[in-house]
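Researcher: Going back to the complex we discussed earlier. I've cleaned up the inputs and rechecked each line, so this should be the final set. Can you rerun the prediction on the complete assembly and write out the structure?
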Amino acid sequence: MSKLLEVKNLKKYFSHHHCLVKALDEVSLEIPHGKTTALVGESGCGKTTLAKTILGFYRAQDGSVFLEGKNITACRRRFLARNIQIVFQNPYVSVDPRYTVYATLYEALTVFKKVSSQEAKPELVNLLAQVDLSPEVFHRYPHQLSGGQLQRVCIARSLINRPKLIILDEPTSALDITTTLKILTLLKRLQKELGVSYLFISHNLKLVRFMSDYVWVMYYGKIVEWGSQKELFENPRHPYTRVLLDAAYQRLTETASETLETDGCRFRARCTSRDKRCQAEPDWQEISSEHFVRCHRSGDTYV
Amino acid sequence: MMKEFRKNRLAVLCLLVLLSLYGLALFADFFSPYAYDEEDVEHLWSPPAKIHLIDREHNIFLKPFIYKDSFTIDEYYRRIYREDRTQAVPIRFFVRGFSYKLLGLFKSDIHLFGVADSSKIFILGADSKGRDLFTRILYGARISLSIGLIGVLISYGIGLLLGGIAGYYGGRVDMILMRLVEMIMLVPGFYLMLALRSSFPPNLSSTQVYVLLIVILSFIGWASIARVIRGMALSLRENEFVYAAKSLGLRDLQIIVRHIIPHTFSYAIVTIVLSIPGYILGEAALSMIGLGIQEPQASWGNLLSSAMGIVNIKLFPWILTPGLFIIAASMCFYVLGETLRDIIDPKRKISL
Amino acid sequence: MSDIITFKNLGIRYRDGHKALLALDNVTFSVKEKEIFGIVGESGSGKSTLAFALLGLLPENAVGAGQIFFEEKDIFSLPESRMREIRGRQLGVIFQEPASSFNPVLSIGYQFRELLIHKMQVQDAAQRREIMLSYLKEVGLKDPLRILDSYPHQLSGGQLQRVAIAYALSLKPKVLIADEPTSSLDVTVESQIINLFSYLRDKFNVTIIFITHNLDLVGVLCDRVAVLYKGQLREIQEPAALFAAPKDPYTQELIHTFSQLTQNE
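Model: Rerun complete. Updated structure for the full complex:
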């Protein structure tokens, strides 16, 4: 697989009430060209921090991000903007409520292009057509649109400068199920048409299964398992991945405790099959060429 | 929003009062019967004229008139003015008087009212040099009311930008700007005003003094505005639309100007209105103690300087009327500001 | 089992200037005693309006018609003063955002105590403490002593929602109304809370009205499900029947969409 984006040993620590929170603890991740890579985990596991660090909103303490082999960790915002865009969870807060749809899109267009508002019109009409919206919405304000419509506007805005990667940060969590399906189908179609890659951040494994080609599972600042969608869903090896899957498919899960370990295997407090080895930090174990897991017991067989 | 505003009778009244004050100031040449510096030794400290409709013989007139007055000097060498009931002087409207340029554009010599040249009318009395107080209040309003407006706009411009920058960037920029703000807010305002004024030469032309007053008042005023805007910017910058703007590649200043500052406008209007009285009072204070607008130029503040002695107030109480104008204008701005604040209730607001 | 709550010809409109927005259109159905009754619908379907109407919490611009019977009494027309006695004591409620049900500056224990003193008249401190600990244990909180001393911001969303459930249950309500109680929680926590509802129904003999947009949850948890769409009641079924053979066209579409998302292509 050819790599579009590569994250290497990214570290981001926050100090919160005098204690250190390791939001990203040596996170490494790869995103291939033209595919959808999912990043899953519970809230607070560092998914969004990773997205914001890739986009340069946060400075990482250590580690680097490569875009097609070029180190972009300290790159200028305008360079990143040409290549990486983001779609947020709640469309109502991710566009300025004082701007009409037209003004929002026009502003995004003029970042790299000098065009008058009139000249931009045909291009923006095309853009809206790509996300199945008619030009009628141009002069509406965000609060006059439904969540689905507005999310389409956000997707259109992210496409405007033809980025190579779009980060989808829980793009459908605020939407209804029927709208969710429509938006996800739209995103898939756009990927086919434009060849854009996605980093799909979600905690809903059903949607992840529907959307992605590769899945990375994150637990409190650490990647614990990654693999192709098929392998990961059919043969989950990390106990945390199994907990997430069970929850998504409404199977009762038993967790030992909710406390968090700061060394060794982070998950061991919640793990029902922990043993002595878990005191030490687990290393990557290869299950197949497209499936790796960080668990001491990955060799064990599960029922 | 307009509907809610119109429902509040008091606020509407205040708005009308303010509009008429500004109107009077703007067209002061037309509304005032005399020039602001026209002195008259015959009428030093002349009391407010009594306007009559009924004469001695109980005839009712449709047009108001005054009696010509004359004075005698008492044993303390004070002038005692007395109406001469035999000589009625009708008040005439739209009379010709000194010529002026309306709004600096149209030449004219028509005045709203006046009396025949043989007599004079002082509806609010005259001052120590026999100048019409009413005229001087109108001309003073030009200075006092415009200083408030211009001053607050300048302070707001500075406060908005620096507050926006401090809040948006946070960190060291914020730290430096906010310490500066605290330094200004720490020193008592009046003391700071005096200190700033005294750091400039005393003998400036009236225009220079006017500009200087605005500069001084703005210099003090921006700090508190910047601090509040900074707080709002601090929370606004965590909004996803700001992150979205960043990821689109917009420059910081573009984001601050387009996506941060406009969200503070509803708050801004309230603060602007509520802080105008501070500027009016600031000007009045400086001018009253003789550090602001100089004679013969009039401002509400320096008109009050003759009311600083208790003897003058006792003998010529009408010299306090500029104070009433200051109180009225300030109160109207406060009522207006409070009403606007109630309407733009921050609790009812969006995802700020 | 007898009906505990009956909605009869319930219609609710929201006035908005000169327009009136139809939120519920002539809705009639009953909820049986000790049932877990699901109400499914997308945003704008009127499911939250239904909950607010039942609790007497409709906003001022709402105009209602019809009746809501709770144990054979029409409570829809009751004045607020009477409703206040019923709400909480008879009809417990759990909202979507757990943090919003708590006062952020008071400890969990303090708020719980206040509740027991004022709503349940438990004056004895030792007895109060026992009640509080037992309910916190019932809702699956492992360290109830620590929880009592904590402030809302020190607890996770899942823990807070459990505490909210404990508060609601401690008033011994006959009906528990849960309005999207898991929508703001992680999936792992969500499945635990769902299981908790099943357990609590059997333990406390409480009727549960479970409002959600998530068909998954309805399938696992509910005895019967009502589907709402644009203010209209489209269908009432047992979940298995609903998934297997939806009758109404809207439900069919909903189930179809749902299965598309859940089954891999």
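Model: Worth noting: Chain A has a mean pLDDT of 88.
Researcher: Good, that matches what I expected from the previous run.
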